[in-house]
Automatic annotation (TrEMBL):
GO biological process: DNA-templated transcription termination
Pfam families per record: Rho_N (PF07498)
Organism this protein belongs to: Geoanaerobacter pelophilus
Domain Rho termination factor-like N-terminal: 1-32
Name this polypeptide is given: Rho termination factor N-terminal domain-containing protein
Length: 58
């Protein structure tokens, strides 16, 4: 997902992206959604969130 798309998702959740890095912003989105903040942490095989919107990028 491109950064502009990530920013739109964030704005929809009331998160102000500012100059956040993509990975930090996605983890903030995960936090706001009540999910584990695991994006780009190397735990893709273990997170158990097969339906995660960020899975392909992770």
């Amino acid at each position: 997902m491109k950064m502009d798309d990530v920013k739109e998702v964030a704005k929809g959740l009331g998160i102000k992206p500012g100059k956040m890095k993509k990975s930090d912003l996605i983890r903030e989105i995960q936090r706001a959604e009540g999910n584990e903040e695991c994006y780009n942490s190397g735990k893709a095989d273990q997170c158990g969130q097969a339906g995660c919107a960020w899975r392909e990028d992770c």
